[in-house]
What does this fold into?
Amino acid sequence: MTKKNRPNLVDHITSITQNPIETEKPKPKQAVSKTRKQVSVTETTPDSVPDVQLTAYVHPKVKKEIKMLSIEYETTVKALLDGGIEHILKKYGRQTMKEISEK
It folds into this structure.
């Protein structure tokens, strides 16, 4: 996708705010039975280990740049950060995340 063909996000947002779309009122939530079984979002097999959280503190402008990159390249922030982690592991001669997780 070339830059010429990309729609201008600012123009799009401006047109939406100037011409708001009529939406239906949200329907009231239905009562949920208390006997409903809770299901785990992440199903794991005995051999698999779920991912764990890794936190990094960055300047708000850095966070915004990473979000903008994810939009520009039509990917997720997680995919960009995974690529960065892969780069660091490769740089220091370590196994890739896939190789590590297969152990």
In short: Residues 58-103 form one domain. The mean pLDDT is 78. The radius of gyration is 21 Å.
